[in-house]
Automatic annotation (TrEMBL):
<keyword id="KW-1133">Transmembrane helix</keyword>
<dbReference type="GO" id="GO:0061513">
    <property type="term" value="F:glucose 6-phosphate:phosphate antiporter activity"/>
</dbReference>
<dbReference type="InterPro" id="IPR020846">
    <property type="entry name" value="MFS_dom"/>
</dbReference>
<feature type="transmembrane region" description="Helical">
    <location>
        <begin position="331"/>
        <end position="357"/>
    </location>
</feature>
<feature type="transmembrane region" description="Helical">
    <location>
        <begin position="369"/>
        <end position="391"/>
    </location>
</feature>
<feature type="domain" description="Major facilitator superfamily (MFS) profile">
    <location>
        <begin position="3"/>
        <end position="395"/>
    </location>
</feature>
<dbReference type="InterPro" id="IPR051337">
    <property type="entry name" value="OPA_Antiporter"/>
</dbReference>
<feature type="transmembrane region" description="Helical">
    <location>
        <begin position="124"/>
        <end position="141"/>
    </location>
</feature>
<dbReference type="Pfam" id="PF07690">
    <property type="entry name" value="MFS_1"/>
</dbReference>
<feature type="transmembrane region" description="Helical">
    <location>
        <begin position="300"/>
        <end position="319"/>
    </location>
</feature>
<feature type="transmembrane region" description="Helical">
    <location>
        <begin position="153"/>
        <end position="177"/>
    </location>
</feature>
<feature type="transmembrane region" description="Helical">
    <location>
        <begin position="207"/>
        <end position="229"/>
    </location>
</feature>
<feature type="transmembrane region" description="Helical">
    <location>
        <begin position="93"/>
        <end position="115"/>
    </location>
</feature>
<protein>
    <submittedName>
        <fullName>MFS transporter</fullName>
    </submittedName>
</protein>
<keyword id="KW-0812">Transmembrane</keyword>
<feature type="transmembrane region" description="Helical">
    <location>
        <begin position="249"/>
        <end position="266"/>
    </location>
</feature>
<feature type="transmembrane region" description="Helical">
    <location>
        <begin position="39"/>
        <end position="61"/>
    </location>
</feature>
Length: 430
């Protein structure tokens, strides 16, 4: 339980970091002389740095474990928060946001790695969903509470406080987390597998190819809506004041937390992460499409559709649980990190494209701009979900006499046990 709570704190900070810009943007933007497109690029830079950070994260988790990996990166996030609090223009703010994104890279991966090493695969979906759902409280803190705090203390003070809290979390990780036993690569030894070879092995798993498009799009469209556009959409299209925008954002964030937690029991009931994620992505794509077509007509309808998007949209943990089935134990760290590269690379790409889209529709009314944006999000997710429908449910060795759809080659040979039963200790319990 101690390890779970400490890693949950790190992930909660990461969640806050990826969403706070939407709430402080009305003050930060004018103070630094930034336009809406500049703010979109700042957010995209966070996700791009986060995605790039998955490369060293995957290697370090496999080689040194989550304790030093998570703590070291959190120090970088704290430094970035402090620098953002001192920023005077776009260049400084962009560098600070990138440093925060890089520092948050292993916040969730450390927990997922520990779950994968210490628990049987069938518990992975439940544990990761609970972690993601509770960690989404960072989004809750980044909505109405952040709007009130920013108004009372100013966004620069908030960033300095964030830096101090992040440093404290790094200290707790070093103090209270214990790494699981080292696990050697059975074919190449524990220290000889190059970083790129491990990631290449994951990329070559053909069974995962139909999964990659929905991983790239599903999280991206939800987090772009939550972290970048929800506040400006509710203000520009529906005329809500800052507190009302915060409340609308809070509704979406609360739904995201509840939905992420709910995915765990739902997957246990369905007993199939693929079908669970498939249904969630379908609902999310339809909700975004309806928001794009009809959300401008009613504030209540828009908030309900945003909440539905949040509730169904955090299929991240279940998609990760589906992919985790295909990773051998010696590639677990790089496997989950590779999937996170796709998740966060998609988020960076979608937010960058969103900025270009908004710039390219400057002559349209706000309801038309956001309507087209959300409709594009919904249609992209529905297309990716259609591809995902052809993904195999499990590796070939778990499907007696089965052949992968579409002529895909069999999955990897059965992985060895992730580790021996965990000995009692702080790091063995979640």
């Amino acid at each position: 339980m101690t390890a779970f709570l400490v890693l949950l704190l790190a992930y909660t900070i990461s969640q806050f970091d990826r969403g706070f810009l939407a709430m402080v943007a009305p003050d930060l933007g004018p103070d630094l002389g930034l336009a809406a497109s500049d703010l979109a690029l700042l957010s995209a830079g966070w996700f791009l740095a986060f995605a790039i950070g998955q490369v060293p994260t995957g290697l370090l988790l496999d080689r040194v474990g989550p304790r030093r990996t998570v703590a070291g990166f959190l120090v970088l996030a704290a430094l970035g928060a402090g620098l953002l609090g001192l920023a005077q223009g776009f260049a400084e703010a962009a560098a600070a946001m990138a440093l925060i994104g890089l520092g948050c890279a292993p916040a969730l991966m450390g927990g997922l790695y520990l779950f994968g090493r210490s628990y049987p695969p069938e518990r992975f979906a439940m544990l990761s969903s609970v972690m993601i759902g509770l960690g989404t409280s960072g989004d809750l803190l980044g909505s109405t509470p952040l709007a009130l705090a920013s108004h009372a203390f100013g966004w620069r003070t908030i960033l300095v406080g964030l830096a101090l809290v992040t440093l404290a979390a790094a200290g707790l990780v070093l103090w209270l987390i214990e790494d699981p036993p080292r696990l050697s690569d059975p074919s190449k030894g524990p220290t000889k597998t190059s970083i790129w070879r491990g990631f290449a092995e994951v990329a070559r798993m053909r069974a995962l190819w139909p999964v990659f498009p929905v991983v790239f799009v599903s999280y991206a469209v939800v987090i772009a809506t939550r972290s970048l556009w929800v506040g400006s959409y509710l203000g520009a299209v529906h005329g809500l004041d800052p507190l009302q925008r915060g409340n609308g954002t809070l509704a979406m964030s609360a739904a995201m937390a509840a939905g992420a937690i709910g995915y765990g029991p739902l997957e246990r009931l369905v007993r199939d992460p693929k079908r669970t994620a498939l249904a969630g992505c379908l609902v999310t794509g339809l909700a975004l499409s309806v928001l794009g077509l009809f959300g401008g007509s009613s504030t209540a309808l828009a908030v309900v559709l945003l909440a539905l998007t949040g509730a169904a949209g955090l299929s991240y943990g279940i998609l990760m649980a589906h992919a985790r089935r295909f990773f051998p134990a010696h590639l677990l760290g790089r496997g989950v990190a590779f999937m996170n590269i796709v998740f966060m690379g998609g988020a960076a790409a979608v937010q960058g494209l969103s900025a270009a889209f908004v710039l390219g529709t400057g002559g349209l009314a706000p309801d038309a701009v956001y309507g087209r944006l959300f409709l594009a999000y919904g249609l992209a997710l529905l297309a990716a979900t259609a591809v995902y429908a052809f993904a195999p449910r499990k590796p070939a060795f778990e499907r007696p006499n089965a052949v992968d759809p579409g002529g895909m080659e069999p999955g990897p040979t059965p992985p060895p046990p992730a580790c021996a039963p965990a000995a009692p200790g702080r790091g063995a319990r979640a």
